[in-house]
Amino acid sequence: MSRARNNNVRGPTSALTEFLRASGITPTTVARRAATQQGQQQAAAGLSNDDSQQQQDEAGSSSGSRRPSRAASRRGANRRESGYGSDNLDEDDEGNREEDQDENGADEEAVEEPERNSPAPAKKRKLTKAAEAKLKAQEKKKAKGKGKKGSDDEYQDDDDPYTSLSKSMWSSGSKPPVGDFENCAKCEKQFTVTKYTMAANPGPGWLCHVCAKASGKDPFKKPAAPRKRKAPGDKREVVHFVENRLPTLVNLCIKVVTQHIDDVESLGDIGTLNVEAIAKAMAKNRSLTAENAKLFYNTTNSKLVLYDATNLSSPAFESLVYLNPNLTSLRLDFCGQLDDPAFKVFTTSLPALERIELLGPFLVRSPAWKAFIKAHPNLEGFLITQSPRFDLDCLRELVSHCTGLKELRLKEFGKMSDDFLDEIADNLGGQGDSESILEYLDISSPGGESCSDAALVNLLSRIGGSLRCLDVSKHDLLTNAFLLGGLQQHTHSLESEWENPPLVSLDASRNPELQTDALEAIMKHSGTRLESLNINGWKDVEENGLRDIGRQGKEMRKLDVGFCRNMDDFIVKAWLEGEDVKGRKKGGCMELVELKVWGCNRVTANCPKKPGLALHGVESHIIRRT
């Protein structure tokens, strides 16, 4: 099936097509020539068929009665070549018989008598039931196609499918190049072709922009953007109940000063707390540089805290010491560029220094540490984190020269071992009747292997009596022997029968094996004074243990019970309002200001709330439709 030539669909044309058109060879001339050749072939075939038919009639009519003549078969072949379909074979046979009777009427009369005595000619072959059903199905399919797509007669013609024109030849030509001049097919005015030029409908030709708009089409209309598929959202809805409070005037001023810190010439007399708040705000975006760091320097400073010294170079640290010579306490976080030359200035120019806290002094070597320790025998606080070059010899110098240490932190030391603990026990432990004065010890997160139970028990036997804070986290080899032989005998513990003051803050999160008994022991010992409690991950705590928090935690202000599966709205109500005991409300965490219930699926958005309480992690189980 071929489409009508007046269709406005045009495709690209090749250079050969353009050359043939320029030479006078057009689709019309090609079709005319093909039709002329086909007519000549049919005329020649008809003459030869007549001669052969006469010779066959003279030879005998018996063979002609048994099979169709060659002329009829050739004419049938010519018809099939010229475009007759195979569905009209029966009609072609009838037409062939009529033509044979007209052309050979005289011959048939001459042999009429013999034909009567001969067998009857072959009758028209009847179609089988299967063939009839197939033919009817094809007709129904054609009728249905016409109903859906409209009349297909507009696209049918009698051209032979092998000699018909190419579809690319139907169009009047491809779109002319941009910048050429063309005449409008409607108003016949000359215009310049652009990428917005539209073809005339019906063609051929092109329309100017005015005529294109008049036809109801906007040539400048942009194609509609494809619809973007929405990303699948979270099917749960987490609700946070937080009371929004306006920032204070002090907070607003600190925010403005931090944003324009490079334009500030001096902070003035704004108080130590406000200066520290500005330093914390600047650490959030790491805006502290060698230029604006001088705003925090003063020769009268006795304490200096910089929460992010990442951008300070070695000369900047030297300037810090020269401009703050009377410091007694110094804290520098993220001081990775502090090296031996700058640390040598620390040794010689800070004679009154009593407490130093450094985070990340990677470049300071062992000789520089030893020189600094010898120059400051009055140190009371030595808190160092992440110093891979601080070795056992440095520790020996420290514990032998600085015998008045009250705070010691050797956190994340790659060379930490049992030898470190033995040196601390031998030099900082009590001698005879005297007791140790060490109150704070942090040896957590060793870079190598964990320290042993024996070394820690020996250390606690010497300094445990004065310790108020001990951090031995990430020492994976510790067992119950350390708890029973070290903590229980020489330091304070959580058990109520020990003479240990109640805790104010406790973080026991990520311990899924701890259950109700552990929580009840904590509340029995420290419940009346406990202000902050984190039991996130205690998945098997029972409801009675959770309610015990509300019965005894009168001073509780911050509470994290995430992933405690038995948490529900009624427990939250008991914490906020107290429990009904004989018609009276008793207990309750009346000072509670922050509650985290992440992963507690039984706590809903309808749980009780109160003014001033920040409630985080409530899952309302509302499915979002995407």
Automatic annotation (TrEMBL):
The lineage of its organism: Eukaryota, Fungi, Dikarya, Basidiomycota, Agaricomycotina. Residues 1-16, 49-58 have a biased composition (Polar residues). Residues 178-217 form the DNA repair protein rhp7 treble clef domain. It holds the Pfam family zf_Tbcl_Rhp7. Residues 129-140 have a biased composition (Basic and acidic residues). Residues 31-46, 164-174 have a biased composition (Low complexity). Residues 67-77 have a biased composition (Basic residues). Residues 88-112 have a biased composition (Acidic residues). This is DNA repair protein rhp7 treble clef domain-containing protein. GO terms for biological process: SCF-dependent proteasomal ubiquitin-dependent protein catabolic process. It comes from the Eukaryota. GO terms for cellular component: SCF ubiquitin ligase complex. Residues 1-179 are annotated as: Disordered.
